[in-house]
């Protein structure tokens, strides 16, 4: 396939391998983030671009790239792309929301075991030459109650792994969720009162800021441990600090913080530094080789499917059309303003050309409509011109 794909910022080699295996040969790799004129120049003839978190695809940049058809964010976050502008220009944006789910879940289970066995303290003492063999306050995870707050992708995986080491699992989620394994839903305050290990897997934002407030931390058992690998603002860090220093909590493991250093050069500052029953990790819950490899494969798959078949399933800013194998001669991808009459006018153009529509899938999202039309005949350039020139059309392609 001739589509040009530019991959910036040292994306994992699994992406190129996957794209090549699917027949894409025109791939250009740039090992760093680009900006300004250099970025526009590098992408001027690209059909697709892959970025990580350091390349800013602003409205100005996107408007300067009329050829660009799709964007892959080889990471979880998509703040670096102006998603609304991309949508209004007919550019679906993809990311990798699940690639590091398992990495986070494994770390949480490890932290639960280490905290219940008081390993952080034993480790610190051993480093100081103290030989503390006491079993006091060290517990197995088997039979203990794990309370999961936020039973989404990561929370549910944590629950499954926890059961495999013999834990009992309960969860709190405001949405109704299918419980996996033997997990059971529980009201939040009851979960906090009962659980031996409480782990947070909620989204960030105003609705979850200080979800674990001083009052809620006070509900926890004094022997219980708290794990937060979700977002820093979810726990009232001063209240947690007070509870730990006052021996009102058994320990904690934190991977995320209200304020995090922006680079390795900045010092990590936290009131919890120096507490021996606390594991502090630098936001690496999802940072594993496997996660990077998975991200490379997951996002490159999404780009390949869009370029070759128009699939937009799981796009973050775009109407979602599920994958359908292209088994016809021509497939037309038509992005248009979501207004009455577009499909009727489009289909009239097909009929005028004597073309029979084999299948058609339409989805809309806000102001954008997206129609994928299969026709079992070649499409003349003159018809493509009319479809692309249709009054509500934003862009259209033949794949
Ligand atoms: P998800 O969207 O699949 O699950 C979040 C769940 O939280 C949903 O089921 C939602 O209904 C629930 N929820 C929302 N508000 C809630 C509330 N007030 N109380 C209880 N539950 C609530 O998200 P996913 O993928 O499981 O990620 C969870 C968190 O983990 C996110 O904050 C994400 O940013 C973070 N994360 C951290 C990583 C790390 O390196 N430490 C890596 C990957 C994700």
TrEMBL record:
<dbReference type="Pfam" id="PF22629">
    <property type="entry name" value="ACT_AHAS_ss"/>
</dbReference>
<protein>
    <recommendedName>
        <fullName>D-3-phosphoglycerate dehydrogenase</fullName>
        <ecNumber>1.1.1.399</ecNumber>
        <ecNumber>1.1.1.95</ecNumber>
    </recommendedName>
</protein>
<dbReference type="InterPro" id="IPR006139">
    <property type="entry name" value="D-isomer_2_OHA_DH_cat_dom"/>
</dbReference>
<dbReference type="InterPro" id="IPR006140">
    <property type="entry name" value="D-isomer_DH_NAD-bd"/>
</dbReference>
<dbReference type="InterPro" id="IPR050418">
    <property type="entry name" value="D-iso_2-hydroxyacid_DH_PdxB"/>
</dbReference>
<dbReference type="Pfam" id="PF00389">
    <property type="entry name" value="2-Hacid_dh"/>
</dbReference>
<feature type="domain" description="ACT">
    <location>
        <begin position="331"/>
        <end position="399"/>
    </location>
</feature>
<keyword id="KW-0560">Oxidoreductase</keyword>
<comment type="pathway">
    <text>Amino-acid biosynthesis; L-serine biosynthesis; L-serine from 3-phospho-D-glycerate: step 1/3.</text>
</comment>
<comment type="function">
    <text>Catalyzes the reversible oxidation of 3-phospho-D-glycerate to 3-phosphonooxypyruvate, the first step of the phosphorylated L-serine biosynthesis pathway. Also catalyzes the reversible oxidation of 2-hydroxyglutarate to 2-oxoglutarate.</text>
</comment>
<dbReference type="InterPro" id="IPR045865">
    <property type="entry name" value="ACT-like_dom_sf"/>
</dbReference>
<dbReference type="InterPro" id="IPR029752">
    <property type="entry name" value="D-isomer_DH_CS1"/>
</dbReference>
<dbReference type="Pfam" id="PF02826">
    <property type="entry name" value="2-Hacid_dh_C"/>
</dbReference>
<dbReference type="InterPro" id="IPR054480">
    <property type="entry name" value="AHAS_small-like_ACT"/>
</dbReference>
<dbReference type="InterPro" id="IPR029753">
    <property type="entry name" value="D-isomer_DH_CS"/>
</dbReference>
<keyword id="KW-0520">NAD</keyword>
<dbReference type="InterPro" id="IPR036291">
    <property type="entry name" value="NAD(P)-bd_dom_sf"/>
</dbReference>
<dbReference type="InterPro" id="IPR002912">
    <property type="entry name" value="ACT_dom"/>
</dbReference>
<comment type="similarity">
    <text>Belongs to the D-isomer specific 2-hydroxyacid dehydrogenase family.</text>
</comment>
């Amino acid at each position: 396939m001739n589509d040009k794909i530019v991959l910036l910022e040292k994306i994992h080699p699994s992406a190129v391998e996957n794209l090549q295996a699917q027949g894409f040969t025109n791939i250009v790799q740039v090992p760093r983030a680009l900006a300004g004129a250099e970025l526009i120049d590098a992408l001027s003839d690209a059909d697709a671009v892959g970025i990580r978190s350091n390349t800013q695809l602003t409205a100005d940049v996107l408007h300067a790239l009329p050829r660009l058809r799709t964007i892959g964010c080889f990471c979880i976050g998509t703040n670096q792309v102006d998603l609304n502008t991309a949508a209004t220009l007919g550019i679906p944006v993809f990311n990798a929301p699940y690639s590091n789910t398992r990495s986070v879940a494994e770390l949480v289970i490890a932290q639960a075991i280490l905290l219940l066995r008081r390993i952080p303290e034993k480790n610190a003492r051993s480093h100081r030459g103290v030989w503390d063999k006491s079993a006091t306050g060290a517990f197995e995870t088997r039979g203990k109650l794990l309370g999961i707050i936020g039973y989404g992708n990561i929370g549910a995986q944590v629950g499954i792994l926890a059961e495999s080491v013999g834990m009992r699992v309960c969860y709190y989620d405001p949405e109704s969720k299918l419980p996996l394994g033997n997990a059971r839903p529980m009201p939040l305050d009851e979960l906090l009162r009962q659980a031996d290990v409480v782990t947070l897997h909620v989204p960030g934002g105003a609705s979850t800021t200080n979800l674990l407030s001083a009052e809620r931390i006070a509900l926890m058992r004094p022997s219980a441990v708290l794990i937060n690998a979700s977002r820093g603002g979810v726990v009232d860090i001063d209240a947690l600090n007070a509870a730990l220093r006052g021996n009102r909590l058994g320990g904690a493991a934190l991977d995320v913080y209200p304020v995090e250093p922006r680079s390795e050069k900045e010092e990590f500052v936290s009131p919890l530094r120096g507490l021996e029953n606390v594991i502090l990790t630098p936001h690496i819950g999802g940072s594993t080789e496997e996660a990077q490899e998975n991200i490379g494969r997951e996002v490159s798959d999404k780009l390949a499917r869009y370029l070759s078949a128009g699939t937009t399933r799981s796009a973050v800013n775009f109407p979602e059309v599920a994958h359908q194998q292209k088994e016809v001669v021509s497939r037309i991808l038509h992005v248009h303003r979501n207004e009455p009459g577009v499909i009727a006018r489009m289909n009239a153009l097909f009929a005028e050309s004597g073309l029979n529509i084999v299948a058609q899938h339409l989805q809309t999202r806000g102001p954008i409509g997206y129609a994928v039309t299969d026709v079992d005949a070649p499409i003349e350039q003159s018809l493509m011109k009319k479809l692309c020139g249709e009054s509500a059309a934003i862009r259209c392609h033949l794949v």
